[in-house]
Amino acid sequence: MFYLTGDEISKNKLIKIARKCRLPLWPNEEEPFLRQTDYRTIPDSVCVLTEDFTNTRLQALFQMKITALIDANASQKSILDFIERHKNRSFNNGLGFLLTGPVIYQFDIAQVFATALKERFHFSDFRFDSIHLALHEALVNGLIHGNLHLTSKMRQSADSYVSYTELLRKRLNSPAFARKAIDISAEWSSTKMKIVIRDEGMGYSLSEILKNPPSVESKTGRGLRIIASAADSCTIDNYGREIALSFLKETKTKPDTVSPVAAVEHQVASTKENLSCCKVLIVEDDESNQALVAGLLAQIGIVQIEVAKDGVEGLNKVLSFEPDLIILDITMPKLDGFEVLWRLKSVESTRTIPVLIQTASDTREARDKTFKAGASDFITKPVNPLEFFARVRIHLENRLLVKRLQKRLKQIQTELATAQNMQISLLPCPTTIQDIRNRYRLNIVSHFEPSDKLGGDFWQTIPLSNNRIGIYLCDFSGHGLATALNTFRLHTLIFQMRMIIQKPSDFLDELNRQLCALLQRGQFATFFFGIFDAEQQTLTYAGAGSPPPFGWNGKRVVSLSTKGLPLGISEKATYKNHTCTFKPGYRLFLYSDALTENPNAKGERLGKKGLLPLAKKAFKTPDLKEGMQELTDRFFAFAPPPLQDDITIVFIEGLSLEGSKTA
User: Fold this and answer.
1) Which H or E run contains 261?
2) Which of 54-63, 211-220, 247-256 has the lowest mean pLDDT?
3) What is the C-alpha separation between 530 and 131, in angstroms, rounded?
4) Which of 62, 82, 505, 602 is least crowded, fewest Cβ atoms below 10 Å from its Cβ?
5) β-strands 279-283, 304-308: how paired?
6) Phi, psi of 276 (to 5 degrees)
7) Are 599 and 644 in contact (CB under 8 A)?
8) Per-residue pLDDT band at 631 (split at 50, 70, 90)
9) What is the pLDDT of residue 508?
10) pLDDT attached to residue 246
11) 88-115 pLDDT, tens digit each
């Protein structure tokens, strides 16, 4: 049976709570109060207290069979919700606090709660320190930022500290804030313990949640990072109002006399990232402090350590040693810590190195000054090992992450450049263009402008006989590696099929059939393929959804029909041949859709109507290269780089087109 008991509060209030929660009172409704003699015999129960809070008394209560403890000054809704969450728990598997701000602010509740958990879950002294630290940071976070709605900026600024303390005092005495409670609950099994800290603050707004969901990784505050480093796992929920910490059961591999520092070494080695590759520079003039810090670093696997005894030597070793973290003292000979910080942050090569300040001064003014000077973090002497490990690990893990990202980015850029060069190699080379000019009496001028992404554009020629040559322009949908790979696959496929090409429509039919089997759903390619016959003076072509080319016969511009489904969409697609005559001096203009679809800064697109005047101007220019240059200059004046897609333009001179639709 689960009971509700009270301690020096109104009997009527206690009865009211019990009835709403449907819980029996203990010992009974006549005397539902705790006495000192009852402590050893009390059953599983929730104890409701009023003003009589002391660390000693709270510790004594939690040594009894108390499952949960409630501050009667909390709001009634908080109390009812809290009891509802604990009704199915017992002394053997759960524990909870529901306390208001004034109590939490006055007493070391984190220590009381951690001590009570230690008696039940049986963890080591080191794990006790971890839980104590994590609870303390989580309670401060929930109370100050949640219930009292105060910011760290006021607390950390020397200018705002007086007004901050005054505002803190007022809110702790204001019913609107002081009746808000913090719910600290723990439950455990034989292998794992979970602690949840809930506040009643405003939390994050929905817009903030959608923009940047609250998580340990996304927060810049040191508090949440310390919490996460102390626990085996940490999650944030309920719009930032709930922090859940998980601690695994320890495997006892060493005697109980193992020091916290040695315990850290074991825990870090098994659960955290290996820091042996990291380099740390200690800038400290006191030899005993040098030895202490170096010894602590060694406990978490850091062996690449250099020491400097003053600021000048420290700056020299930064350049030669290239550390991943600098642990810097403030008071030193020759150059003090502030001057060293200023010089480090003034140079591009050392600006990003994290600097952990260690000093005996723990005033707000000292902290404010060091952070303004560019310090990454701050720790006071004498050094607390647990806090030291947490802060060092945070900055080194961030440093390693940045290094890995930079290395990966460089690798991606190299691979991207290689892939783009490979795509360019698919295009006809100058020797091929010259050979076509000599053999087939075709003058070809082309322009390929790659975007900063891997695209799917390419064009190529296929000699079919001494008089016949095929020319095609392809544009795969999408961007990226998959699209680039598709261009290589298609190029290989066309090379294998080149000996059987007779009619463009038959070629597109077979190409479409094979691509439908190769491409994934949603991938396709627009395609134009034409066969030029120098002896018959004809162009026979077929299109698969490509932008319609423009042709010019010396007097007017015509648009060629390229109707047909893009390749790779449906095996039932069919394609139609079109035949045009050509004469020397006639011209054809092929292009990819980026020329008409790439937007400028205003979001405007050239479109087919905007491209037509540029094509006419280029056609009328006697020299084909000059016409190409003028067209590209006018296009990039309209839509300057960077491009969203590759642009391919091919001018072919020597064609005569008749019977096509006038543009």
Assistant:
1) helix 260-271
2) 211-220
3) 75
4) 602
5) parallel
6) -65, -20
7) yes
8) very high
9) 93
10) 87
11) 777 778 888 888 888 888 888 888 888 8
The phi and psi torsions of 336 (rounded to 5 degrees) equal -80, 175
Give the pLDDT confidence of 582-622 residue by residue, as tens digits. 788 888 999 998 888 888 888 889 888 889 999 989 988 98
Q: Which of 116-130, 307-321, 331-345, 421-435 has the highest mean pLDDT?
A: 307-321
Work out the average pLDDT over 551-563.
87
Tell me the three state secondary structure of residue 595: helix
Task: Name the phi and psi angles at 396, rounded to 5.
Answer: -70, -40
The token pair that represents 589 in the structure block? 């203009």
Nearest by Cα to 141 from 78, 199, 204: 199
Q: Say if CB 98 and CB 78 are below 8 A apart.
A: yes
Assign 637 to helix, strand or coil: helix
User: Which residue type does 448 have?
Assistant: F
Q: Return the pLDDT at 577.
A: 93
Beta bridge partners of 70: 48, 98
pTM given for the model: 0.46
Q: Which residue type sits at 243?
A: I
Please return the burial class of 417, using the count of CB atoms within 10 Å of its CB with bins 0-12, 13-18 and 19+. exposed
Of 110, 94, 108, 91, give the one whose Cα is nearest residue 44: 91
pLDDT digits (tens, 9 = 90+) for 176-207: 888 889 999 998 888 888 999 999 888 766 55
Q: Which residues contact 183 (CB under 8 A, 6 or more apart)?
A: 78, 82, 85, 96, 97, 98, 196, 197, 198, 199
Q: Are strands 525-533 and 557-559 parallel, antiparallel or unpaired?
A: unpaired
Place of tokens 């095929």: 470
The residues near 108 (Cβ < 8 Å, ≥ 6 apart) are 55, 136
Q: How far apart are CA 234 and CA 236, in angstroms?
A: 7
Q: Which of 108, 98, 62 lies closest to 185 in space, CA to CA? A: 98
The residues that bridge with 650 in the sheet, in sequence order, are: 446, 590
Residues 26, 42: Cα–Cα separation, whole Å: 8
Any residues with CB less than 8 A from the CB of 308 and at least 6 apart, and which? 281, 282, 283, 284, 314, 316, 317
